[in-house]
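Quick one, T. Sequence first:
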Amino acid sequence: MSWLVIMSIGVPVVLLFLYVIIRHAKMGRILEGMSVFWFRFAFAFLLLFVIHMSLGYVGYNIPINLFSVLTIAILGIPGVFGITALIFFL
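Structure tokens:
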């Protein structure tokens, strides 16, 4: 398919999607909540990576896995303290 065909199909679909979201505020709030969660998920991954790299020099290894990332994404700062406490005390 050429890019012209893809754009002629994609642009109206995106505009229709945006129209539906704007018209239905409830759907907009759901998508806003999902975007906040995905931002927190990405930030938790980045934070775990920084902690992993910085504590790696001391000799501690904090794993970057789905459980750790979800815990920090959902709980926030208490999740960070919980994950690091688990690593230090276990």
